[in-house]
Amino acid sequence: MCNFAAPDMVGHTGQYEPAVKACTATDMAIGKIKAACEENGYILFITADHGNAEKMYSEQGGPHTAHTNYRVPLIMNNTDLKLACPGDYNAALCDVATTILDAMGIELAPEMTGRSLLAN
User: Fold this and answer.
1) Per UniProt, what is one Pfam family of this protein (predicted)?
2) Could you read off the pLDDT tens digit of each residue along the chain, which spans 120 residues?
3) Which of 41, 53, 63, 69 is the most buried (most CB within 10 A)?
4) Are 102 and 82 in contact (CB under 8 A)?
5) From the CB of residue 119, how many other CB atoms can be counted at a distance below 10 Å?
6) Residue 95: per-residue pLDDT
7) Are 11 and 52 in contact (CB under 8 A)?
8) Residue 118: which residues within 8 A CB-CB, separation 6 or more?
9) Residue 88, pLDDT score
10) Would the CA dihedral through 18, 21, 27, 32 be positive or negative?
11) Cα 92 to chain centroid, rounded
12) C-beta neighbour count of 4 within 10 angstroms
């Protein structure tokens, strides 16, 4: 697991150009990780817990420095497994851990309330 905090942290400043640089650097880093995962047969999951850098300005024209509540994607690079999320299903963060454990073939603890987003 890796947290790329730069887009979030820079997004809080409300400064557009630094946010673009942070997103570009994160994109390049994820590209390298994706290549390494594919080379070694690893599954890569990419997601976020909230938005921030996609909305830099408020409706009044000033900097928007708070988290947004837009839906975020769950991306997986594996071609053998498929995500099965109906468009109307509002997945939650608890579904991410459940999905990753399902992909790894690890049994869930009874306390885990999320559902796997993998197609069976």
Assistant:
1) Metalloenzyme
2) 888 989 888 888 888 899 999 999 999 999 999 999 999 999 999 998 887 778 888 888 888 878 888 788 888 888 788 888 756 678 888 999 999 999 999 999 999 999 999 987
3) 53
4) no
5) 9
6) 92
7) yes
8) 81, 82, 83, 84, 99, 102, 103
9) 63
10) negative
11) 12
12) 17
Position 73: which residue type?
A: P
- Token pair of 17 as six digits: 């150009």
Q: Are 75 and 37 in contact (CB under 8 A)?
A: no
Would you state the structure tokens that stand for residue 37, as one six-digit string?
């995962």
Q: Are 13 and 65 a contacting pair, CB within 8 Å?
A: yes
- Which pLDDT does position 86 carry in this prediction? 59
- β strands within 3-117, DSSP E: 45-46, 75-76
